[in-house]
Amino acid sequence: MKTLFSYLAPYKLRMALGFCIKAAGTLAELILPLIMAEMIDVVAPRGDVLALSLWGAGMLACAAVGLAGNVIANRMASAVARDTMDRLRTDLFAATLRLSARQTDEVTVPSLVSRLSSDTYNVHNMIGMMQRLGVRAPILLIGGVTLTFLVDYMLALILLAAVPVLTVVVILVARRGIRLYDDLQRSVDGMVRKVRDDYAGMRVIRALSRTGYERASFAKINDGVVRCDRRAGLTMAVTNPLMSAVLNLGMAAVIFVGAFRVADGFAMPGDIIAFTSYFTIILNAVISVSRIFVNYSKGSASARRIAGILALKEELLPQRGLPAGERGAVLAFENVTFSYGGAPALKDVSFTLQKGESLGVIGATGSGKSTIAALLLRFYDPQAGRVLVDGRDVRTYEAGELRKKFGVVFQNDFLMAASVRENIDFERNIADKELGRAAAFARADGFIAEHGGMESTLTARGANFSGGQKQRLLIARALAGAPDILILDDSSSALDYATDAELRKTLTQRLPPTAIVMIAQRISSVRFADKILVLDEGRVAGFGSDKELMATCAVYRSIYASQHGEGRDA
Asked: Which residues sit opposite 386 in a β-bridge?
């Protein structure tokens, strides 16, 4: 598994150079109070203007080195953080695409979205800040404390007494902060889920006048995010005032003791001024350290969430040595049982389909119809039995090799805000002739021409096309790749009966080499298929032609009667 350090490894030389430049600039800043003390206590009393000018030029040179070093190092740090996150986001997105359906269900899509957005943002900030302040603040803090001993060791011991207190504060707050920011990111997952659902169902929400309810529901989730953010923010905010209070108390003691030491001749006024300058440097360093720990707490919590996705192994890898199935069958289920985690969605299901045949799958809602398609495409593996395509267990295929055999239209498919051509082609570089042919087979060529042709643009989610037109565009997309097996998962629900019948006739008559699997709620969509699979609570209630099922399958007759009445049309 790749860690965050492995993503930083290619930039280790650049980071090392940046650290050296940052250290040089910071050390130059630390020399300034010493020069100032020398000028006040030694050079100025002599009245040597030339020497005073030279020492002043030295201060300007140190200040210039400090400024240049910090600017250059900060730019290098930003570049490293940018390039690292570019690679990390790319790998994270690729990891989300190779997750199995089970893994995606477990992590949830909203959580994946927040890990790709807010979590990567937090890690980006952590990488940048650790380079900018992670070198500068410790050098200022340790160097400042060390140099105070050169100025006056007695005063330095007073200031040093505050270090153990500061260390305990930082460690305790940082440990609690990481847990709180982890809770915060999980609450953000919930907010992303709510926003995603509301945007997807905006028309329904407005149509049912539920905007007030949804506002209240979102406000409740948002309040939870705010509470988590407040707890984390208040916890991390403790560090800055506590550190400042401890250091200021130490400084008050230094000034008090320093006044007596100057009066007794043990210290010079320039030493006290240099000491107060170092105190300011130390205080700013401590504030920077507190900022580092805030960002570290956020970043480390987010890094763990990202690492959790990168660590997930690809589940549905090809398996070798599995026995072959029946020759000649383009697809087959052999005693398949599958569950999403609760009660089985399919129980001991078996059927076969030959090349060029059409299969209709029908049953009540929740009977396992769509699960058939999910197992064929190997989005999931069955708990028992096996699924065969062209006589091979689907577990022996590479994912790309298997899915190239299929053209699929799902229940809740999507269209891009792009041209009709781009939506049908879907980045497969299909020739215009084949795109036109697929549109004609899907009975979509007429309304495509009315909308301005293949270059006409769809709005988001295809809102400028009717439901039936969108379904036919999706069918055209599935057909454009010339699949061996076409799966239509309730893809004609928005079509009128005449268009549905015409489309089915076109598909069955003009695509003889292609096996067609039609999953539908309407019996009229499947009754003319060569074979019909009737599912009832995940079990096979019947398998055969329309005529055979009307004679032998009570469930099929019940579905027909509920949709068409007791009489039977010709």
From this structure: 334
| Residues 15, 153: Cα–Cα separation, whole Å | 35
Task: State the Rg of the chain over Cα.
Answer: 35
**384-389 and 329-339 beta bridge pairing:** antiparallel
With CA atoms as reference, report the closest residue to 386 among 348, 423, 330: 348
Backbone dihedral region for residue 318 (phi beyond 0: left; psi -120 to 50: alpha; all else: beta): beta
* Superfamily grouping for domain 4-310: ABC transporter type 1, transmembrane domain (1.20.1560.10)
Amino acid in position 29: E
Determine the Cα–Cα distance for residues 294 and 288; give it in Å rounded to an integer.
10
Close Cβ partners of 155 (under 8 Å, ≥ 6 residues apart): 148, 254, 257, 258, 261, 267, 275
pLDDT in tens, 460-470: 777 788 888 88
For 540-561, the pLDDT digits (tens) are 999 999 999 999 999 999 988 8
Query: 31 with 96: CB under 8 angstroms?
Result: no
Identify which of 314, 374, 303, 299 has the alpha carbon closest to the alpha carbon of residue 95. 314
Q: Under a CB-based contact definition with an 8 Å cutoff, are residues 488 and 475 in contact?
A: yes
pLDDT (mean) for 193-198: 82
- Given this chain, do its domains 4-310 and 329-564 carry the same CATH topology? no
Residue closest to 526 by CA, chosen among 560, 484, 555? 560
Residue 186, pLDDT above cutoff 70: yes
- In our burial notation (b when 16+ CB lie closer than 10 A, e otherwise), range 41-68 reads bebeeeeeeeeeeebeeeeeebeebbee
CA gap 110, 193 in Å, rounded: 5
Nearest to 439 by CA among 457, 420, 426: 420
Domain extents in the chain: 4-310, 329-564
Q: CB within 8 A of 470, min separation 6: which ones?
A: 415, 462, 494
The CATH class that applies to domain 329-564 reads: alpha beta
Backbone angles phi, psi at 372, to 5 degrees: -55, -50
Q: Do 52 and 43 touch, CB atoms closer than 8 A?
A: yes
DSSP conformation class of 89: H
Residue 10 pLDDT > 50: yes
Phi-psi domain of 538 (left: phi exceeds 0; alpha: psi -120 through 50; beta: other): left
H-state helical runs in 369-459 = 369-376, 399-403, 420-425, 432-441, 445-450
